[in-house]
Hints:
By secondary structure, the protein is an alpha/beta fold. The protein is 28% helix and 21% strand. It has helices at residues 22-25, 29-40, 67-79, 115-124, 129-132, 189-194, 200-207, 227-231, 256-260, 275-289, 332-344, 368-372, 378-387, and strands spanning 6-10, 49-53, 83-88, 98-102, 105-108, 136-138, 147-151, 159-163, 171-177, 179-181, 185-187, 213-214, 237-240, 243-246, 267-268, 297-303, 306-307, 319-321, 325-329, 396-399. It has an eight-stranded mixed sheet, with helices on both faces. The protein has a two-stranded antiparallel sheet with strand order 4-5. A two-stranded antiparallel sheet has the order 7-8. The longest helix is centred in the last third of the chain and has 15 residues, at 275-289.
Amino acid sequence: xxxxxxxxxxxxxxxxxxxxxxxxxxxxxxxxxxxxxxxxxxxxxxxxxxxxxxxxxxxxxxxxxxxxxxxxxxxxxxxxxxxxxxxxxxxxxxxxxxxxxxxxxxxxxxxxxxxxxxxxxxxxxxxxxxxxxxxxxxxxxxxxxxxxxxxxxxxxxxxxxxxxxxxxxxxxxxxxxxxxxxxxxxxxxxxxxxxxxxxxxxxxxxxxxxxxxxxxxxxxxxxxxxxxxxxxxxxxxxxxxxxxxxxxxxxxxxxxxxxxxxxxxxxxxxxxxxxxxxxxxxxxxxxxxxxxxxxxxxxxxxxxxxxxxxxxxxxxxxxxxxxxxxxxxxxxxxxxxxxxxxxxxxxxxxxxxxxxxxxxxxxxxxxxxxxxxxxxxxxxxxxxxxxxxxxxxxxxxxxx
Length: 400
Ligand code: SF4
Ligand code: SF4
């Protein structure tokens, strides 16, 4: 018997849809989801509290995973007498609000940054109790700051602030929509763990090269009423002598202090990290999240509707390859590698350029996300994940 982890794969529709034939039904993606779930949900026992990690999609995004798939997962867990709850964390988007598109149209992004906004977009996208069959619960609290600090020996991090309420559950099912990502290269199970299951502090520390700093040359107590101190939700900032100081062990980068400070450049924000550094850091986050217990977690990747951009952006663009199918596994590296291999080996889809002409499709054997965005490389995730011993890059693909 192979020692490699198994990745179950249900390929996309193979037969043209004809109503009222039982043969046709096994080509239905929801039925295929059930077939994958039959293989992977062997970790659930009656009475288990099961956290089902989802991503409801950013406002204006139209490629996020449809809640119909989530409902299948919820139904399968209930059939095993588990108690499913959809779980999610708040998005980083502290600083982002309106982006002007043209003179009279702007879009507001960062809708998932707190519970109030996040719930609205979840409802709009159908992630409601009535549709999915389970309620949505924010495991890092209303503002994304509830955390449990986990010590690790990561590539960079020695401690990670994991979403605190993750540990209220007995088992986890990580549902990921496989697609591209402008910094991570792609989004799958690893990213759903390393960004999707940590509190804002470690989302911030992965994306940015440090926390906010007081510029003591500019900070001037005679020009303010210490608005920074009053605006900090976690009391990370105080006045010490002639200027404010920030306690870096508590700050989670919400930027409230910077927005409220009336003195220009008195508080300075960090820069975005370079892509490989960002990736290694969120893979460190995965190491901390897996302290939950790797054997208590199952992964399902939906490689359908696959644009180069992530569900966290307002404009996800058009798919770059055809649907690849639904994947299930116990191993977060193996399932993501199977999806990237399938994407690489798929023919690219043509799309219209700005002149309205069809582009030449990318060829079989070419990794599409990297080709479309040379700044990224899916190998960064796999290399870091292997360094942190998070699973296996080799896998056995079993077609359902
Ligand atoms: S950071 Fe701004 S608000 Fe805070 S003490 Fe300095 S000048 Fe005042
Ligand atoms: S960014 Fe400013 S307001 Fe936010 S936690 Fe840090 S010190 Fe407090």
